[in-house]
Amino acid sequence: MIDMRKRTLFYTTVTAVVLLLVTACGGSGDKSSGQDSGTPTTGGVLKIADGSEVRSLDPVDISIYFTSGGDRAISIYGSLMKYGDEGKVIPAMAKSFTTEDGLTWTLKLRKGVKFTDGTEYDAKAVKFNLKRHMAPDSNSTGKSLLDDVKGMTVADPYTLKFELNEKNGAFDSLFTQGSNLGFIASPTAMKKKGDKFGSDPVGAGPFVFEEWVRDDHLTVVRNDGYWDKEKPYVDKIEYSIIPDPQTKAQSLISGQINAALILPPDAWVSLKDNDQFHIYKEGTSGAAALFPNAQRGPGKDERVRKAIQMAFDPAATHKIFNKNVTEWNGSRDCLPFAENGPECTTNAPEYDINEAKSLVADYKEDGNSVKMEILTVSSNDLMDHAKYYQQVLNSIGLDVSINGVEVTEYTPGVVKGNYDAVASMILPFPNPYPKVFNFFDQSGSNYPKQEDKELDAALEKARDSLSDEKKAAAWKSALSIMNDKGYAIWAAPAPTYTVTSKDVHLGNAFVAGGSIWYPADAWID
Predict the structure, then answer these.
(1) CA–CA distance, 312 with 328 (Å, rounded to integer)
(2) Mean pLDDT of 370-389
(3) What's the pTM?
(4) Is omega for the bond preceding 130 within 30 degrees of 0, making it cis?
(5) Are 285 and 370 in contact (CB under 8 A)?
(6) Which of 104, 277, 465, 520 could form a disulfide linkage to 232, CB 3.0–4.6 angstroms apart?
(7) Domain coordinates of the chain in residue numbers?
(8) Cα–Cα distances in Å, from 273 out to 255, 268, 270, 279, 325?
(9) What is the pLDDT of residue 64?
(10) Considering the chain, what percentage of its residues have pLDDT values greater than 90?
(11) What is the mean pLDDT of the chain?
C-alpha cells in the first residue's frame, strides 16, 4: 500500500523543468563549474522572457518547478545549494552540506552573511524557513520532500543538523535551485510584513527586489552586499511575462529580450543556425511520454502496455513532435536520460505495429474493453501529443478518447489516477532525483500507478545510494523494469532549451540546458 504520509506533492506540470542531483557525500567544493565560454564581465541588464505569472514570491508559495516562479525567487534568495559540473550538487548560499551515512546530514553556513534588511543568515533563520514548509497547514510544494526529516537541531549559529527517518543519499539536492526549500527568506521581514511579504520579498541572494508589475514584468537589482563579492556580474534582471513561445523567439530576434527559458523546437528552430544566438543544449534530453494506468482500463493488462510501446515509430514521432530539429538515433534505450549515459538500457521495445495489433486483438478476444481515455492538458503541446497518441492507438485496435483539462485539474487528476493513460513530458533535468523518482515511485505521483515492489526497490536504491556508480546502476535497473513491464512509453526526446543572445552567458552551460541556471553566475559581454 502507498504510504499517504509520504505522498509527494510536487506534481509535474507540462512546464516543469527540474531537477535534481546525486552526489557521494554531499556538496563540499566552493566553485561553480564555469562551463560557459568566455571571461565574466560586469554590468548590463539581463532581460528574460518568462512564460507565466506567479501569485507570490514567498518561498512557501513558489512552485518547485524552476520556471514557475523559482527562476525569479532564486535571484532574490539565492539557494542553499546549486548544480555544478555534470549536475553535481555544490554549495551556493551554504558553505557545505555533508553526510557519512545518508541518515544524518550537516549543513554549514557561511559566517557574516546577512539578509538585505540586516537580519543574520544563520542556522535559526534556515530552520525557521523550513518549519514554515513543514507546518500542518502548509500548502508548500516542498512540504512532502521533508516528510522524512525526523528532527532539525541548531548545533551552533552556523550549523544545522538533520536526522532522517530513512536513508537518502541525495537529500542535499532538495536544496538546490530546483526546489523551493533552498530559498531562505528573512524571518524578520516575514514576521513584519505578514501576507504582504510575497509581494515585497527580502532575501540575501545576488539581487534585491525592486519592482513588480503583475502580468508584465518583475525587476531585481544587484545586491552589493552579496556574500560572493565579485558577483553578481550583471546590474539588473528584468523578467517579462511572455506566454507564447513563438513570441518569445520573435522578442529575441527584435532585441526586446536577450534570454528565453523553455523554448520548444518549433520556436527555436528559426534561431538554430543564427550565429547571433546561443542555444543551451547541454544536460539530459528528457522525453515526451505516455503512461498507461496499470490499475485501470486496458493498461491493467501487460499485453496492452507492451502493444502501446511497440505501436510508435520513433522516427515518425520525432518528426511530428520535434520537427527533426535535433539529431536522434531513434533508439529509446536511453530515454529519458542522456544518450550514451550510464543509465541507458538495452531492452527498449522495438517498433512493431503488426505485433502491437496482435497483442490488442488477443486482449480483446478475451472479452476485455478496448476503450481508453487519455488525460492531458488542454492548452499546450501535450494536447497535440495526445491527438497523435490517439491516432496511433486507434490504429492498433484500441478505442481512444482524450480528456483535455486545465493544469489545475490535471495535477489532482494525476494524483488520483483519474485516467486510463496520461500524456506528459519529462523535460531536461540535471539529475533524475527527485523528478524521475516522483514520476514512478509509489510514494510520489506514480504516473503509471504501479504497485511493483521490484521497481520501487530500484528507485529507492537510486535515491539512497551514496555512490554515483551505484546510483546510475540503480537508475538503469529501474529503467529496464519500466521497459520490461510497459510502465512508460517513451515516445521521443523532449529538446526544450534555453536560448540567449550571443553576448549573454548563463554561467554553467550544462545546467542552463535544463533552464535552471544560477543568476549570480550570469554575465553579458
Answers:
(1) 15
(2) 92
(3) 0.82
(4) no
(5) no
(6) 520
(7) 41-281+498-524, 287-492
(8) 17, 10, 7, 10, 11
(9) 64
(10) 67
(11) 88
Per-residue CA distances from 40 to 25, 160, 520 (Å) = 30, 33, 11
Give the pLDDT band (50/70/90) at residue 23: very low
- pLDDT category, 135, cuts 50, 70, 90? very high
- Greatest CA separation found in the chain? 73
Answer for the pair 87, 147: CB distance below 8 angstroms, yes or no.
no
Range of lowest pLDDT (4-13, 358-367, 486-495): 4-13
The CATH number of 287-492 is 3.10.105.10
pLDDT at 2: 36
Q: Are 85 and 33 in contact (CB under 8 A)?
A: yes
pLDDT exceeds cutoff 60 at 90: yes
Residue 46 carries which side chain, given as an amino acid letter? Answer: L
Residues 6+ apart with CB under 8 A from 124: 154, 157, 187
Q: Which homologous superfamily does the CATH classification assign to the domain defined by 41-281+498-524?
A: Periplasmic binding protein-like II (3.40.190.10)
Closest to 519 measured CA to CA, from 73, 15, 88: 73
User: DSSP class of residue 501?
Assistant: E
Task: Measure the CA dihedral 45/50/52/58, to 10°.
Answer: -50
Q: Quote the cell numbers at residue 189.
A: 521581514
What is the Cα–Cα distance from 53 to 55, expressed in whole angstroms?
7
Cβ atoms of 300 and 348 within 8 Å: the answer is no
Q: Which of 53-62, 292-301, 318-327 has the lowest mean pLDDT?
A: 318-327
Separation CA 207–CA 204 (nearest Å)? 8
Among 46, 44, 160, residue whose Cα is nearest residue 94 = 160
